[in-house]
Amino acid sequence: MTGPARRTLVDAAKQGDQNAFAAIATDAADRLYAVAFRILRDPELARDAVQQALLNAWRDLHALRDPDRLDPWLYRLVVRACYVEARQRRRTIALTGLSVVRSVPDRPLAQVDDHEQLERGFRRLSPEQQTVVVLHYYLDLPLTEVAAIVGLPAGTVRSRLHYAMSGLKAALDADARPTTGKASSA
After folding, report:
1. Residues near 65 by Cβ (< 8 Å), separated by ≥ 6?
2. What is the pLDDT of residues 124-165, one digit of tens each?
3. In the beta sheet, which residues pair with residue 67?
4. Half-sphere exposure of 156 toward its Cβ, with a 13 Å CA cutoff?
């Protein structure tokens, strides 16, 4: 749903039309869940985050000035809800579906055969780093848009992405090193 139809629905929802908001929520739910799941890596937590984001959207829809900015606004709400879920549940946050990430400096991810290894590397990143990676590489958003969604300056987002990719590379390199334990003789 785009253009005039979306604007009409947003305007109607702002006036309290629950059916218009239901149409907006239905249209956005799968996209929001995909982002939440990639950040939280837990279906229940992701559903909770999407539900909270949509509740916040209904409550705060009057604050949305430009109906054409609905998707970035909803992404910002779901990212914030993911942070809340992560803090409340004190769970390790990891990413899934990482094959969409194009490369780590000096080491293409296509060369990483073990997806478990890739998952372990992402678990070592902070939730904020994981979020910028998901928004930039999974949603293919430009860094300026990622910055708007997470509410940070573009330079900070570039820095987080740089440190996330460097951290991922370091984790992959560390996992690739042979262990140097002494073997016991039988």
Report:
1. none
2. 788 888 899 889 988 889 999 999 999 999 999 999 999 999
3. none
4. 10
**Which residues constitute the domain of residue 167?**
98-176
Whole-number Å distance between alpha carbons of 101 and 31: 18
- On whether both 15 and 69 belong to a single domain, the answer is yes
Contacts 24+ apart (CB under 8 A), 66-71: 67/6, 67/7, 67/10, 67/11, 68/6, 68/7, 70/6, 70/10, 70/24, 70/28, 71/28, 71/31
**77-116 pLDDT, tens digit each:** 999 999 888 877 653 433 444 443 444 444 444 444 567 7
Q: Which of 57, 89, 121 is the last residue in one of the domains?
A: 89
Query: Are residue 60 and residue 77 in the same domain, yes or no?
Result: yes
Give kind and range of the element (H or E) at residue 153: none
